[in-house]
Amino acid sequence: MFQRPSTRTRIALQLAFSELGGIPVSLDWSSLQLARGESVADTGRFFSRVFSGVAARVVSHSTVEDLAESCTQPVFNALSDLYHPTQIIADLFTIWEKKHRLSGLKLAFVGDGNNVANSLLIGCAKMGLNVNLATPKGFEPNPLALKLAEGIVEGGAAINLIRDAIEAVKGADVIETDVWVSMGHEQEAAERMKAFFPMYQVNEELLKYASPDAIVLHCQPWHLGEEITEGVAYGPQCVAFDQAENRLHTAKALFAHIII
């Protein structure tokens, strides 16, 4: 169920369920009675009767929670304003694929403390990655996500909030970034550009401070010339298209583990 635009998430979820033998039904919020005022709870109660699971890409995280409370089948968060967990599963798998391990690696996230950053903190904490998160003042990750991550760190992993992007990426095995203006924040574009550019741009100069074999992740779509330069995005260290492909494989693993 999609309230937000989607390319990689929608395609990955649909193909994954189809390749596992299921029948995916893709629904846009605007085409449902939700657009005319039907409650999320009643929609969830109906979904329980006809679907084996529901993936919801929504504006507010409370919508996912309301759906999960009313629906007796598994509900997957395919993106909300607070979290993006299916993305982070693919990110962690991509890191493991390239580095052959997760625990003990150093990851630097440079940019906005958005839904991707929130979920990344939790995912890295669970898998034992050390995280340096570089954000300007006022754009830190959600305090609830940070508290949750700090409460579940494995293997002595550390979480550090840092203002200086160069300091954050020094010796990093992985650098990750995301757009500075996420969906729903378009009206803040000018303010955000002023806060992030140029200090928090992942460019060739910043990459020099990371480990020589560091990889670069970006969940895409990207805004070239803003949070990442074209040279880095299409350079040899960026694995964003492998990362995008892995949305499909990790979605299949998720469905196989929970539904099938």
What descriptors fit this protein?
260 residues; alpha/beta; Rossmann fold; five-stranded parallel sheet; two-stranded parallel sheet; globular
How is this structure best described in words?
The chain has helices at 8-19, 40-50, 61-70, 85-99, 115-127, 143-151, 165-169, 189-196, 204-207, 230-233, 240-258; strands at residues 54-57, 75-79, 106-110, 130-134, 159-162, 174-177, 215-218. With 260 residues, it is an alpha/beta fold. It has two domains: 8-81, Aspartate/ornithine carbamoyltransferase (Rossmann fold); 85-244, 3-Layer(aba) Sandwich (Rossmann fold). It is globular. The relative contact order is 0.14.
List the helices and strands and how they pair.
Layout: H1 8-19, H2 40-50, E1 54-57, H3 61-70, E2 75-79, H4 85-99, E3 106-110, H5 115-127, E4 130-134, H6 143-151, E5 159-162, H7 165-169, E6 174-177, H8 189-196, H9 204-207, E7 215-218, H10 230-233, H11 240-258
Parallel strand pairs: 1-2, 3-4, 3-6, 4-5, 6-7
Q: From the 3D structure, determine the CATH topology of the largest domain.
A: Rossmann fold
Helix/strand/pairing class, anyone? alpha/beta
- Spatial strand sequence of the major β-sheet: 5-4-3-6-7
Proportion of residues in β-strands = 5-15%
Order of helices and strands: HHEHEHEHEHEHEHHEHH
